[in-house]
Design brief:
The chain has 634 residues and is of the alpha/beta class. Helix 11 runs parallel beside helix 18 (405-440).
């Protein structure tokens, strides 16, 4: 498919076919571009233009006639700002008959470039060339382009990897099926780090460095880095960069286990914010902002605040308040935004974006909800006190010297998609899920949860200005007379739907940039059959006990002290009173029940017993035993 490059001219006069459009359309022929379809449109009113910016994601440039119509300069600046609030990445070019070009630029922060009207009339090719050059820069993929060119050259391989472009697979009588299944390009593009021209991941040189800089530009941060072994590693890199032995860190106990392990590695002292759980739905909310305020007041010497920006179920924290609180007390703010990498690219999400909110460090799992390979992750840095040299040393500790080039390339093209069509794709997804929710509201036994429902079950939802990502479709199936296992099996057979997550009463379905309308219709059709009782499933749902609130984490020593102490394993039922030496994490929901340094209580044991009737995986439990320290630690 050929990309569309729509240029929207906002003229603010009564003529729908102005000189600006005529001159620019005439210039299109001079460029003879076959790789992009250039269309030039003129809208005479600002209100219509703003609506078009909202509706048409193929618009890639705005040409705004500052001098047209009767608008004041203040109104003109407001127009530019309004465009940027809808699509921050959309370049705006100002054209004016006014001689005060410098004053116009000073009044706005979002103007890409300025042109005098007479210059456009005299030399329209120059302006169109400028716009096309910006378009090409935004669509550039420095690493992917250089990588593909190198692979296509088919150079002889005299270095690692040992399969030499797939030859050892292709020529084997035993494993050539592996080669045939994946195809030539997978093996030909599996390169060694000996290819200097492509650059070093650990040093950020050449094509890799240029690709990372483009990511920083797109995400509007100071620095961005590629990580090829997941955001679990990204989180640990940031924590080890910022924390030292004994440092206090205020952290949501609902954070991903990589955060807990990262704190162990740094030998820091976590100050945990309690889980907020609804036992009826079996889901967790972000911590209360009041508890964060209290923790800051009680521990003013804390160095860092760590929160999850978007929970697994899509609940969102008002991060602007968090960042303001942290920065007022000299604390850095690190947000794990693994499940919300698209947050900056649509106004529906942007107010809850960690970057937009001013967080110092952000991690994005680019493979979870946007278009990158598994294990692909971004680290973004906006800290004015960023110690780049020390960060690079920690980065080198965790980064492989033989990174997978395909993962790096996917991070490069993922940025391009977000820059060029992220808004368009998200807009389409939001429209489709809105229609789905509207129709699903007619169900009698199944309920698709929304902000109103979350406000009813979490008392701090409205008070803390929380939100919800509608692309995380959380469905209450407790009204059905079927077990979760039966529902899951039916959905697999009916629509081939692998459920992202189940609780005793809900299931979670994720819509990502790869979500298509037909998938949503198939999901709706299957849910309607369940709701109508025509699914041919047998009634008789087994009663499942609701879990209690997760007990708070009360540490008796540094987690690192317990983790590295002498340990022994004991049956989990007999661990009451002992000091935990490892994390124990039930799935679902994936929240640590206890962490190293915590004394195990009967309430912890009761919690596991209550979940025993569900299909439960407990990480940190080995053959029914857990690790504890051999003696108490001071």
């Amino acid at each position: 498919m050929t990309p569309e490059f729509k240029i929207l001219i906002i003229e603010k006069d009564e003529s729908p076919n102005t000189l600006l459009q005529q001159h620019l359309e005439g210039a299109v022929q001079a460029f003879r571009r076959s790789d992009v379809n250039i269309t030039i449109l003129t809208i005479p009113t600002v209100s219509l233009a703003l609506q078009m910016v909202k509706d048409d994601g193929c618009i890639q440039a705005i040409v705004y006639n500052w001098s047209g119509g009767q608008s004041s300069d203040d109104d003109n600046a407001t127009v530019v700002n309004s465009i940027k609030r809808i699509r921050h990445e959309l370049p705006v070019y100002v054209v004016s008959r006014d001689s005060e070009g410098l004053d116009i630029v000073n009044q706005t922060q979002g103007v890409e470039a300025f042109f005098y009207h007479s210059d456009v009339v005299d030399d329209p090719e120059s302006m169109l060339g400028y716009l096309l050059n910006d378009f090409d820069d935004r669509a550039e993929t420095p690493f992917w382009s250089a990588y593909r060119k190198y692979v296509n050259e088919s150079n002889d391989s005299w270095h690692t990897p040992g399969h030499s472009g797939g030859a050892s697979f292709r020529n084997s009588s035993y494993i050539n099926d592996f080669y045939q299944y994946f195809g030539r390009n997978v093996f030909a593009s599996d390169l060694s780090v000996s290819v200097d021209s492509l650059g070093s991941l650990s040093d950020g040189t050449h094509a890799i460095g240029r690709a990372q800089q483009l990511v920083a530009n797109t995400f509007e941060v100071q620095h961005s880095y590629f990580v090829t072994n997941g955001s679990s590693t990204s989180n640990k890199i940031i924590l080890q960069t910022l924390l030292r032995q004994g440092d206090k860190v205020i952290v949501d106990r609902n954070c991903h286990k990589s955060v807990h392990y990262g704190i162990i590695q740094t030998q820091a002292m976590p100050i945990y914010l309690d889980s907020v759980m609804d036992p009826d739905l079996g889901i967790f909310a972000p911590p209360r902002l009041q508890q964060l305020r209290d923790a800051i007041q009680q521990h003013p010497d804390a160095k860092l605040i760590v929160l999850t920006g978007c929970t697994y179920d899509g609940l969102l924290t008002d991060l602007k308040q968090v960042v303001e609180l942290g920065h007022q007390h000299g604390m850095k703010v690190f947000i794990d935004e693994a499940w919300f990498a698209y947050s900056l690219f649509h106004p529906r999400f942007r107010d809850y974006s960690a970057i937009h909110s001013g967080a110092d460090y952000i991690t994005h799992s680019a493979h979870k909800v946007v278009s990158a390979f598994s294990q692909a992750s971004y680290i973004h840095v906006n800290d004015p006190d960023f110690d780049k040299d020390f960060f690079k040393e920690i980065y080198s500790i965790h980064t492989s010297t033989s990174p997978k080039y395909q993962i790096i390339a996917s991070l490069d093209v993922c940025r391009k998609q977000l820059e060029m069509e992220g808004y368009k794709l998200l807009n389409e997804l939001l429209k489709n899920v809105g229609e789905f929710r509207q129709q699903a509201a007619k169900f009698k036994q199944i309920k698709v949860l929304d902000n109103k429902d979350f406000s009813e079950v979490f008392s701090h939802f409205d008070e803390d200005n929380m939100g919800h990502d509608p692309l995380k479709i959380l469905i209450d199936v407790s009204g059905l007379g079927y077990s979760n296992h039966e529902i899951h099996s039916f959905l697999m057979d009916e629509v081939g739907l692998e459920i992202e997550k189940f609780t005793h009463s809900t299931m979670l379905v994720l819509l990502t940039l790869g979500g298509v309308r037909s998938k949503i219709v198939r999901l709706y059709n299957a849910l309607k059959k369940l709701d109508d009782g025509v699914s041919r499933l047998r009634r008789g749902k087994q009663k499942v006990s609701k879990p209690d609130i997760v007990p708070p984490i009360e540490l008796e020593t540094l987690p690192s002290s317990a983790f590295f102490a002498k340990r022994e394993s004991v049956p989990w039922q007999q661990s009451v009173g002992r000091i935990a030496a490892g994390l124990v994490t039930p799935y679902p929901p994936g929240i640590p029940l206890w962490v190293p340094g915590q004394r195990i209580k009967q309430t912890h044991i009761n919690y596991i017993q209550q979940l025993a009737s569900q299909k439960l995986t407990v990480q940190g439990m080995y053959d029914g035993e857990v690790y504890v320290t051999t003696k108490d630690i001071d």
